[in-house]
Fold each of these.
Amino acid sequence: MAPIQPKTPAEIECMREAGELLARVFDEMGGEVCEGVTTDHLDRVAAGVIRRLGAKPSFLNYHKYPKTICTSVNEEVVHGIPGSRVLEAGDIVSVDMGLIYRGFHADRATTFPVGRISPEIMQLLQVTRECLARAIRAAQPGSRLFDIGAAVEELATAHGYGIVRDYSGHGIGRKLHEYPQVPNFVPPKGSKAREEGNPRLIPGVTLAIEPMINLGTHRTRTLSDKWTVVTADGLPSAHFEHTVLITEDGPEILTGEQPALKELELDTPA
Ligand code: MF3
Ligand code: CO
């Protein structure tokens, strides 16, 4: 089993700066999420802010990906491509974005409610946000990789939600995706991930932790655009992600704070 390579103090400073910049981009772009805007508008805003801050988008041209951000609406899980789609009240939109600054990547995702959303979908967002919080809390120095997925699995399963298995979190640094994969569940005995081992988390390790949680089945499929991943049953999906540094004192979130989910956004039950 390969140990996870920790970053040097100088590398960690770069990662912190990249993370702070990405948090600022999310703050500005997130303020634009509302009924009536297109997903392309969000992409343009994000691209503008990233450029103004002197950073570069991580996703643009990554395996020929055509945009700066991913915008995945409702039953779309990840890798939705921004375009002319207009967001409507009751939608949710998962925005996933990475940037590179002074040679280091930061990666984050947030699912935003658009206008009032149903209580059922609000709960999905709240629980997925909490799955990320608990997964981060599990990422202590001396803990092991699969403790992260165990934390996600415990909460999501208690709510009867489907945990996406086809996509995982990942190590992050000079490359967007580094060793190890960070599954959002404990890989079962006999699986490839389980055989590859459960390395220890030590100070200096940087991980992108990113639960993707579905209201229904965990199963996904990819649309004919070859990018957009949707739930197999068409039910909504939520995605929250942070780039996290393991320190001697515990996990440090490098990519800001997830916005609070306001009671206000709840649709009044019939
Ligand atoms: N958002 C993915 C991640 O968090 C990476 C997206 S790659 C892209 O790891 F090509 F779709 F942009
Ligand atoms: Co990621």
Note: The longest helix spans residues 9-30.
Amino acid sequence: MSHTNLITLNRWLLSETHKDLAHRLEMANLMQGIQLACKITNNAIKRAGFEQLFGLAGITNVHSEDVKKLDIIANDAFKMALKSTREVFCMVSEEEDSIIPVPEGQSGNFVITFDPLDGSSNLDCNVSVGSIFGVWPKISSDKNFSEKDVLRKGRDMIASGYALYGSATMLVLTLGNGVFGFTLDNTVGEFILTHSHMTIKHKGQIYSINEGNSVYWDKSTQNYVNHIKSNEGGKTPYSSRYIGSMVSDVHRTLLYGGIFMYPADSKSPQGKLRFLYEVAPLSFIVEQAGGKSSDGKTACLDLVPKNIHQRNPVFMGSSHDVSLLEKFHAEHTNESHSK
Ligand code: AHM
Ligand code: MG
């Protein structure tokens, strides 16, 4: 083993000095649950070929998407590992129709939203996928949760992060005080701090969007993408990279800079990605790394969802790139108003 600085995620959580001890203990305990769910999911993915875990489960979810066997394994792992921490008040999962209750006597102070296995269309061909989570403090003072505990601004989040099941397994996390990346060392079964204070470049050179949808895009998205691809005035055209797993595309954007986009278009008028467990948690990470995340006009963290599975258009990444995209959107809006 050749680590020079062995800080495990557990130790790092307990030494987060900007919070009081009680909060640190609650958060460390909650994160134990999240780490455990990520390790179970990681193992299931790595062993899927031997244990017939690839393929469909034969049911559809609330979004009318085909559910894969691994989606169910990951969802159960998150629900069980989180409930058993006794720190969770209620949960929202991409895979469940309604808010998930926690039995009385086992409930705690945090509201958790998660996408247990994001990018699952990529699973069967061995392309990187991930898990995403957001953490909010509960609002209801009594034992029963209500929608007001979950239909809230992204800015109310106190932690968020993702696990990336790639060539290495990583957990990237913010507690509102910067972004930190931990890599799973399989030899000891621990997430070890490998990426301190992750920051995103002010301007990148990569754009990431499903270009197959370009016939459905509005003029502002079309003009913006044409602009960054052009070599007018001697500028270097941006490179295109699109994995189709949001966690992987956002992780690359965080490390290399650029912009990740899933716009609204005439086929998906609200975009595709869901606010509570995809857009908001990753927007928190990107902002904490010094980048920007916007729906084209408003910072995503300032949006308030109307239902738990609400979708939102999203543009996130280097602040220069996202600001320029917003300019194209504003010009397009002004043009359509003046017609
Ligand atoms: P999923 O949570 O059901 O896997 O769907 C979300 C995924 C994102 O990871 C990714 O950015 C997007 O869907 C890709 O969608 P598309 O295939 O339309 O480009
Ligand atoms: Mg998803």
Note: The chain is about 30% helix and 20% strand.
Amino acid sequence: MIRLLYGIRFLCYNPTAMENLANIWQEARAQLEDTLPESKKQWLSKISFEKEENGTLFLSLTSPFYKETTEKNCRADIENTVAGIAGHEVPIEFIVNTEKKSNKKPVSKNVKKEKTEKPPHNPTLNKQYSFDNFISGDNSSFAFNACKVIAQNPGTSFNPCLIYGGVGLGKTHLLQSIGNYIDEHNPKMKIIYTTAESFTNEFIDSLLSKEKISSFKTKYRNVDVLLIDDIHFLQKKDSTQEELFHTFNELYDSHKQIVLTCDRPITELTDITDRLKTRFRKGLNVDLQPPAYETRMAIALQKCRERNYQIDQKVLEYICQNVNTNVRDLEGALTTLSSFASLVGKPVTLEIAKEQLKNFIVTPSIKNNDITIDMIIHSTSEYFNVKEYDIRGKSRNKNITLARHISIYLASLLTSYSLSEIGKMMNGKDHTTIMYSVEKIKSIIDTDESVKQAINTIKEELMQS
Ligand code: ADP
Ligand code: MG
């Protein structure tokens, strides 16, 4: 079938237009930009044309990790597209060339724009955050794509939008990226980024005089885009909630874009009025999950490139295998090692990394069969048919609470993590909460047949895997 398609494309192919593989690759890249899903495009942007030798197309990547991941994710798409344009199959080799800089287009576009035509900068936005330097993986691609659509069409699609997820998973990064994108492409639009905490403080401050309160209202009700970070902070702040409710209504009714972030789903917010919760739940609610190993590795490589950290591949692998809580911790581990390297004036070895990160990341020593907490949560979530996010979270739903207690119990049983380490990996719970779960399960395991069966089944599955 594929061959037949090549044949048909071959009939339409004009050989004079594409005399060599460099041109064919250029054309293929352009086609792939249009056809590849967003999750694969990030790998495409890392590929450079290297050379043409004896009819083979050599494409290069700047690290072994990029080479491996790009080949895994995009080889078939690239081969098909190149063959379609060439009119015959073209042998393709992927190689590593550490000299070459990534030729990701959007970055250079940005750099150019900043140099030539930058309008006055919006002080509420932080330029360091952009869609270009956000690595999207399975854990975040839905949120990432939704945010891009919002940024491209503010006020028309997905309004309001709420991004929720645990700490350090990129909520602020995405919210700021929306602001920066709109600021760049629609410089006339009035954008305000603020945290719920600043909004609250500013509101309290404005209560001092009539002029201040009126200028506060004017400021927030006359924007095109309102971005409010960490709205969980509004819990128990009744007057601020009331003010936000009216601001929200005015903006919403005039089709202005509102994007909010929260550390949990709206349903789990307590002490927020129902009418405000209902407003937040309109539009789109998207979640961010912790990134998987491959995404952590891609993020780590990018952070090293951005900050010019020289960290050995093996050490990076060690970090990414073990720092699995969130991206902020990952960044922290990279900074710690890079600072250590520059202090002692030599590169960090795996041994040094293990020693330096001992108190910082959870140690990888596992009691049994390399079972990780991620695996335990995954199997438990499947058994109980609940989301992994919910198991790590705070939902009080009966089924989820039981799944959480069982995950924690199994983590204490099957891994050698301490209670506080387990707590850290369960979205920062303290060790007394973890101890409570372990004791709870211990107290019912002998009498509750369904709990016993759940534990045995999950344990068996983990042992097998
Ligand atoms: P949150 O607001 O969810 O607590 P942040 O947006 O502050 O998290 O992210 C913490 C750090 O991790 C920031 O420096 C951010 O740039 C980085 N980060 C998070 N997710 C990603 C990602 N997918 N790609 C690149 N950097 C990320
Ligand atoms: Mg944040």
Note: The chain has four domains: 2-99, 141-288, 293-361, 373-464.
